[in-house]
Amino acid sequence: MAEQNEVQKVALFGEEINRLEAAMEQATKTHAVIAHNIANANTPGYEALKFDEVLDQAVKRTEKPQVNLEEELAALSENGLRYSTYTKLLSTKFNVLRTIATQGRK
Amino acid sequence: MALGYPKYSIENTLEISISGLAIQRDKLEIIASNLANINTTRSISGGPYRRKVAVIGEQPLDFAHELAQAEQKIATGGVKLIDIDEDRTPFQRVYNPGHPDADSSGYVLMPNVSLSKEMVDMVYTSRLYDANITAFNVAKKMAQDTLQLP
Predict the structure, then answer these.
(1) What is the pLDDT of residues B123-146, one digit of tens each?
(2) What residue in B sits closest to A32 (Cα-Cα)?
(3) ipTM value of the model?
(4) Which residues neighbour A24 within 8 Å (Cβ) at sequence distance 6 or greater?
């Protein structure tokens, strides 16, 4: 039943919404990794974490012995901007759908 | 849709930054205690005051076991204060024969607190606090962006 709903959602609103949702989820995870690195910037023996680009999901430890605070903050703002891009795109998509839904009667 | 692990939430990333903030605040507290006791020659345990050091550890970040951790209310990711330990560097020996705690040859054992070291630590800790606030604000902005979706 739930699976059927999922299929109908895709058919009705297009795949962009699902893709954007997945992208936002990914950005949230990236943010968690960066926030974790910043929180542990001064933890002895801590090695910075980063997302594996190839696997995209896995978190691995880098070779660097310490957290580079500047690098982390740069990644932080980049990821934040990426996230707000996704929300803007999603918002545009919703606006288009609203126009379709409300202007049809004219 | 199969029930996979729950989606990672922005609230959790806020928790990570909050743990970072808490640690920096604890460290500032310890620095304040060290500075206040920079001339203390009689501590509770007897002898001069020993410089306190925060022992901090990582709270592992694990996306795969979120459900189990949420049920047990264990925070995923961040940092935690393990212990407040003592600095093992030797005390400073200062010649001050008039001091009530001076030994027979006129030397007083003073705490192993270095003013410059504490000040540098304080500035660094306060910068780290700022960095955690920045991470927190970015997560907040992300949550606000999501809530403002029409």
Answers:
(1) 999 999 999 999 999 999 999 988
(2) B13
(3) 0.75
(4) A83, A86, A87, A90, B146
State whether residue B10 sits within 8 Å of chain A by CB.
yes
Q: Average pLDDT in the A28-45 region?
A: 87
Tokens 């400073």 -> residue: B92
Structural element, H or E, at residue A35: helix A16-39
Can you give the pTM of this predicted structure? 0.78
B68 phi-psi bin (left φ>0, alpha ψ -120 to 50, beta other): alpha
Which residues in chain A have their CB less than 8 angstroms from residue B128's CB? 38, 41-42, 69
Selected residue of A43, A85, A94, A97 to mutate for chain B interface (largest B Cβ count, 10 A) = A43
Domain ranges of chain A: 24-94
Determine the Cα–Cα distance for residues A46 and A67; give it in Å rounded to an integer: 8
Q: pLDDT tens across B65-101, in order? A: 555 555 555 557 888 899 999 999 999 999 999 999 8
Q: Which of B13, B17, B148 sits opposite A28 (nearest CB)?
A: B13
In this complex, do A39 and B57 lie within 8 Å of one another by their Cβ atoms? Answer: no
Token digits of residue B86: 């003592």
Q: Contacts of residue B15 in chain A, CB cutoff 8 Å?
A: none
Phi, psi for residue B76 in degrees, rounded to 5: -100, 130
Question: Are residues B12 and A32, on separate chains, in Cβ contact within 8 Å?
Answer: yes
